[in-house]
Amino acid sequence: MFIQQKIFLVSFTAFLASLLAHHYLILPVEGAIFGVMPEASLLFIPHGAMVLLGVLFSWASVLGVFAAHIVIILLPENPFIFGENALWAIANSLSVPVSIFLMTHLGIIKSAYKNNSLGFNFILSVGLISAFLIHLLFYVWLKITNLSIVSDIFLTSFIGHITGLFVISLGATIITNRGGTT
Hints:
By secondary structure, this protein is an all-alpha fold. The chain has 6 helices and 2 strands; from the N terminus they run H-H-H-H-E-E-H-H. It has a two-stranded antiparallel sheet with strand order 1-2. Strand 1 and strand 2 form a beta hairpin. Helix 1 packs antiparallel against helix 2 (45-57), helix 1 packs across helix 3 and helix 5 packs antiparallel against helix 6. It is globular, with a radius of gyration of 16 Å.
């Protein structure tokens, strides 16, 4: 029980910190560079953080990530393009463990670890699948509800998920391989 509490606290804190850093640091910098405050970021670091937490802790990270989503939804300035929708918080929280389950049970990649360090390919593959799943669900939801959100936001959001994933997975791979091989 004690280990699960630690995993919850680590997942919650890391994901909430990445969401807040994204909203209060990365978005204003992008706004200053492009001259307009973007609705969707080209560097969505929280997706990479969520994928890394999912790879490290699997299903145990879901509650911490979900709780961080709920805290962000309750903020006065909600940074999500999905709005105040807890359904998206649930879908987003479950996208990474479902992607890991699909990859391992379909035999695509067996383990996140290669030579006792995190595998860049595994993290990137899980993140790509989860980004695709969440954006596919988002697209279907837009079609069902007939909401008119500009396709640029949708594409920018997808690109931001991929670049944020790449930055975090590259950093995690470099940190775990820091000892080097001889």
